[in-house]
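Ticket #4471: structure output looks truncated?

Reporter: J.K.
Steps to reproduce: submitted the chain below (127 residues) through the standard prediction queue, then opened the result file.
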Amino acid sequence: MKDIINTSKAPLAIGPYVQGVNLGEMVITSGQLPINPETNTMPENVDAQTLQSLNNALEILKSAGLTAKNIVKTTVFVKDLNDFPVVNEKYGEFFESHEAPFPARSCVEVARLPMDAKVEIEVIANR
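Returned output as attached by the reporter:
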């Protein structure tokens, strides 16, 4: 059984997809752009974009009753791999601030992201 996750605390889907799906024991988010859901704006710098993307994914998980501690896998898409040291630092700070173990991770440089974002992050969490 699949439940669709929708929360106003994360950006609305901008296409034919959902914010996330709850599969019972597993929750999977769509890639989260660094859009502030309250202002509908995106920070300029990659460090703020990284944290906003992670916080957006976390809000989706929270709506399914999970926390950052439940994240078991992330995929990080970056527009410029030269930004990876900053992304990596903010990523680490995010999990440390939530006292969550680091999950498995993939990081991929892409030619372009929607809305010209510098980073997009998707997560998989387990109950």
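Triage note (M.O.): checked the attachment and the full token line is present. The CA atoms of residues 92 and 102 lie 8 Å apart.
Status: closed, working as intended.
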